[in-house]
Write a structure and sequence with these properties.
Elements (H helix, E strand, L loop, with lengths): L3 H24 L1 H16 L1 H12 L3 H9 L1 H19 L1 H19 L5 H15 L2 H10 L4 H12 L1 H19 L7 H8 L2 H13 L12 H21 L4 H5 L2 H29 L7 H29 L3 H18 L5 H24 L7 H15 L2 H16 L3 H19 L3 H4 L10
Helix pairs in contact: 1-13, 2-6, 2-9, 2-10, 3-10, 3-11, 3-15, 4-7, 4-20, 5-6, 5-7, 5-8, 5-19, 6-7, 6-11, 6-12, 8-19, 9-16, 9-18, 10-11, 10-16, 15-16, 15-18, 15-19, 15-20, 15-21, 16-18, 17-18, 17-21, 20-21
């Protein structure tokens, strides 16, 4: 029987928990969001630069596909080591290092003189940025419980559509108006958009706590509550399994999720790298600024869908259908996109594609945190992101090759939709053990 004293204690704990989580969302998520906006703009702005860069450097559609996607080979090689170092060293130091190095290389991209230099710098940019996204996914598990993790991840990943919403019109305006000192506007685009990463890197060292024990914005009571609650979840994982890093890397459930994410990344980076050129192809009369404004609409729809789906996923503690249905939707949109050649219909299908891709992300990335812990989580999440992001090479490259063969990008877009459909099917048949909160993989911290 619950006594009045116990009831009061439970009420006090609930109030303490609500207050603590609110502080975490206010203090951590805006900064992580800003950093990811900066990162993503630097990763995808080559799609806008291509509107004038390709002609100046003599780059074909196929070569552009390689230049856009080669970023992910550097990303792939260093992702897992980067995540393990973050878990060992702490987010404050390691994130600052990531930001500073990728900022320097993002600026260097604006100084390339030929295709091979572009390939080299894009590869190195991937090396520098490796570990950022999976590092933050891991970092969120240090602060948020399972019941809040999908929404916290969604608020962070919302930077993807926001980066396009903010970056697209700015990129278009720079291309049309920045012709200073006799330097091409696409070079100014890459240089100017690389500077914020350096500034944010310096600030990150001072403002981002690595662990809850370093969180001075929390009271001692709040830190104690948070540490105890997270420790309880961690202990539940440790009671189920005690896998090593190697065992996590070769685990079948991890590779099943990698296959799912690979297909979705094919579609995501096809969307972000090729949308500017797709919209520009409708009319040579469209200025780069107009293209930048048109790009906004799909990402606005995607942002709204992402928020709604993540809230529903956390409320029901359900991930499979909340990620699978958006994946199928995105695949269908990309397949149908190639059948219509009018701006209004194409923008509508791009919006459906963006809604599917962005809605998939937060419930999907809540899955590994439900059965991975400690160094196993660092390694597993890093591996999931690194291998799957090779889809960021496959998608743009396939579209580039098909464009060279057919003289248009529509057949390539339709082909890129097939892996997304397969991802949706795999999610709907996700093995029960891989999605159950009762099945855990862990390693000691």
């Amino acid at each position: 029987m619950t006594t009045p004293a116990n009831s009061l204690s439970m009420s006090g704990d609930a109030s303490l928990g609500i207050r603590t989580i609110r502080k975490l969302k206010i203090r951590l998520l805006p900064w992580l969001f800003l950093l990811f906006v900066v990162a993503y703009i630097d990763r995808i702005n080559i799609g806008f630069a291509a509107l004038t860069m390709n002609q100046e450097l003599g780059i074909s559609s196929r070569q552009f596909g390689v230049a856009a996607g080669i970023f992910f080979f550097g990303y792939f090689i260093f992702e897992v080591p980067s995540n393990l170092l973050l878990h060992k060293i702490g987010a404050r130091v390691w994130m600052a290092r990531i930001l500073l190095t990728w900022g320097v290389l993002a600026i260097a991209t604006g100084f390339v003189r030929n295709l091979h230099q572009l390939y080299a710098v894009r590869f190195l940019l991937g090396v520098a940025e490796a570990g950022y996204f999976p590092g933050i996914v891991l970092y969120l598990t240090y602060w948020f419980r399972r019941s809040e993790r999908s929404q916290a991840t969604a608020l962070f990943i919302a930077a993807l559509p926001i980066a396009s919403i903010i970056g697209a019109p700015i990129s278009g305006a720079i291309l049309d108006h920045a012709h200073w000192l006799g330097v091409s506007s696409w070079r100014w685009l890459l240089i100017l958009q690389g500077l914020p990463a350096i500034a944010c890197g310096l600030l990150t060292y001072f403002v981002l706590p690595s662990w809850p024990s370093e969180a001075k914005f929390l009271s001692a009571e709040e830190r104690e509550w948070l540490s105890a609650d997270l420790a309880l979840e961690e202990q539940q994982k440790l009671e189920r399994h005690n896998y090593s890093v190697f065992e996590a890397l070769v685990n079948g459930r991890v590779w099943y999720l990698i296959a799912i994410n690979f297909g979705m990344m094919v579609g995501l980076y096809t969307l972000v790298f090729w949308t500017p050129q797709l919209l520009k192809s409708f009319s040579g009369l469209y200025s780069n600024s107009t293209v930048g404004l048109l790009v906004i609409f799909p990402h606005l729809i995607g942002l709204a869908a992402m928020i709604l789906v993540s809230r529903s996923s956390d409320r029901r503690l359900e991930r499979r259908y909340h990620a699978g249905i958006p994946a199928l939707t995105a695949g269908v949109a990309l397949l149908l996109l190639g059948r219509f050649h009018t701006p209004v219909i194409v923008v509508a299908f791009l919006s459906l594609l963006a809604a599917g891709v962005y809605s998939f992300l937060s419930p999907f990335w809540a899955l590994p945190g439900e059965f991975l812990a400690g160094f196993a989580a660092a390694a597993g999440i890093g591996l999931m992101n690194s291998v799957a992001n090779l889809g960021g090479f496959v998608g743009p490259y396939v579209v580039g090759v098909m464009s060279s063969w057919t003289g248009g990008i529509y057949s390539g877009l339709a082909l890129a939709g097939v892996p997304m459909l397969l991802s949706g099917v795999l999610l709907l048949f996700l093995p029960k053990e891989a999605r159950s909160s009762r099945s855990r993989i862990a390693s000691p911290n």
